[in-house]
Write a structure and sequence with these properties.
- The chain is an alpha+beta fold.
- It has one domain (23-132).
- The protein is built from three helices and five strands.
- The chain has helices at residues 23-29, 64-76, 122-132; strands spanning 31-32, 80-85, 90-98, 101-109, 114-119.
- It has a five-stranded mixed β-sheet.
- Strand 2 and strand 3 form a beta hairpin.
- It is globular.
- The termini are far apart.
- 25% of the residues are buried.
Amino acid sequence: MRTPSHRRSQRRSACQLPEGRDLSDLISGVRYVGSTEHKSYPSAAGQPALRSDATPCDHRIGTFEDFEDWLRRGIADGKFGAPWEGAPGYPRYVWFEMTGVCYEGRLVNRVLGEYKGYALTDSERRDLYLRMGWK
């Protein structure tokens, strides 16, 4: 059973690469796997299971390979957030922007470094950019 319609705001915070963690290894180790909870169409993530409170994914914006490239670019640009989870360690959040939309990648498998992604609302984007000091 899902909790009632109230949502707790996510505590997004930027972080630094931990000492001893190699950026190129991190970039090459992450993978975009998507989530059926954000799909209204069949995809490589599986059969659609769009949640009513989930941001729907538009299949026209890119392929899984595109999202994986954007995920890696967000990491290369240093746009990732705490906490670090698993071994060798992956950031829980990664942010990237495409065509004026800010996407958030969220770690879904901390052992394999797998992420899903979704678009942030304009207010979430403004709050994130203010908190992180980004322009």
